Amino acid sequence: MKLYFINSIRTNNFNDEQMMEKIKTMWGEASRKLKNHQNSVYGVYYDYESDYKGDYSLSVAIEDNNGKSFIEIPNNEKYEVFKVDTTDEQGIIISY
């Protein structure tokens, strides 16, 4: 699966005081860009500095775009999908 980035941030759950604001802003901007997008939207966590305490990258991505920035997930790679209630304004935050 090839996922094309809509936008991205770099953050840390433990020492970035702006983490939640960065994530909220990133998703808000992506939602506006994807207002008419009907297919799945992905939140992709990757490029971990170390373990769960290190810096990491987070991107909003979609499958059907010809953007230049992308990440390819091999078919045999293990990943998890978390469903989001898109009718709830706080759906992403609740799932997070």
Index terms:
96 residues; alpha+beta; four-stranded antiparallel sheet; 4 strands; 26% strand
Q: Can you tell me about this structure?
A:
This protein is an alpha+beta fold and 96 residues long. It has one domain. It has two helices and four strands, in the order βαβββα. It has a four-stranded antiparallel β-sheet. The protein is globular. The mean pLDDT is 88.
What oligomeric state is this? single chain
Query: How many E-type strands?
Result: 4
Number of domains: 1
Helix count equals: 2
As a percent range, the share of helical residues equals: 10-25%
Largest pleated sheet: 4 strands, antiparallel
InterPro entries: Reg_factor_effector_dom_sf (IPR011256)
Protein name: AraC family transcriptional regulator
Organism: Aneurinibacillus thermoaerophilus
Summarize the structure.
With 96 residues, this protein is α+β, with helices and mostly antiparallel strands. The protein has helices at residues 19-33, 91-95; strands spanning 2-11, 42-46, 56-62, 70-72. The chain has a 4-stranded antiparallel β-sheet.
Give the SSE layout.
Elements: E1 2-11, H1 19-33, E2 42-46, E3 56-62, E4 70-72, H2 91-95
